[in-house]
Amino acid sequence: MIKKITVLFLIAIALTSCVSRKKIVYFQNVSSLSDNNYEPKVQPDDEVLIIVNVTSPNEALAAPFNQSSVVNLTPGAGAGQSGEGRTYRVDKDGFIQLPLVGSIKLGGLSRQQALEELNKEVKKYISNPIITLRVTNFKFTVLGEVKLPGTYTYPGERLTLPEALGLAGDLTVYGKRNNVLVIRDLSGKKTYNYIDLTKVDFMQSEFYYLSQNDLIYIEPNKTAVNSSATGRDLTIAISSLSVIIAIISIITR
C-alpha cells in the first residue's frame, strides 16, 4: 500500500516536470534558412572611432583629425582619444563635429556610406586620405530567464540575437524560447517584436541583428511560474505525504 502511494506520487511529479522537446531545441527548421544581408547603421549616441591617415610622408596633414586636443563642440556630443584616432559621440540628430570640416551627418548611414561621406569631406583638406571608422560602445541589455542578466558593451558593430544571449550565458531551462521579446528605440520611438528561437525563421527578421541599446526580455515558462507559486505547497504536500505514510504504517502493523 505504502509503495503504491509513493510510486503514484513520484509519477505525478515526473509528469508535471516533463517539457516538450519542441519547446527547448533551437533552430528546428534550419534547412529553410536563406541569406540575410544586413548592414548596421550609425545611430544617435553611438561612439565612433575615426582614424585619418595619409599616404604621403607628411603625417602632420592628418594631425588635426586625430589629436585629442581638439574639442568637439557639438551640443550633447563628446569626444576623446582612444589610441590612434579620435572618438566622437553621434548627437541626437545624427551629427558629429569633425575638426576643420565642421558638422557632418553620419546618423542613418551604413559603415560604408559613412566612410564615403567622411572621405568626401576630408579630401577637401587631404589628398587620398585613408579613413577607418568603428563603433566602440555597442550596448544591449538582457533581462529575465538568462543565467547572466545585465547590460553589456560589445566591441563590434554586428551582433546577432543568439550571440547576445550567448554573452548572457544562454536561457535557463525556465525561459520561454518561443516568445523572446526584443524592444528597440528608433529615434525616440519604441518598437518591439517577439522572436521564436525554436524556429530558424527569425534569422530573416530585422530583429535578428541587434541595434544600439536593444532590450531583450526572456519570459519565464509555465514551469517557472508554477514552481514559484506552488513551491511552498509542494513542500507541504511532501510533508503531508510523509505523515500519511507514517499513519498507514502504524495502522497496518
TrEMBL record:
Keywords: Signal. The keyword Signal applies. Signal peptide: none annotated. This is Uncharacterized protein. Residues 36-136 form the Polysaccharide export protein N-terminal domain. InterPro entries: Poly_export, Poly_export_N, Soluble_ligand-bd. GO terms for molecular function: polysaccharide transmembrane transporter activity. Pfam families: Poly_export (PF02563), SLBB (PF10531). The keyword Magnesium does not apply. It comes from the Bacteria. Residues 139-187 form the Soluble ligand binding domain.
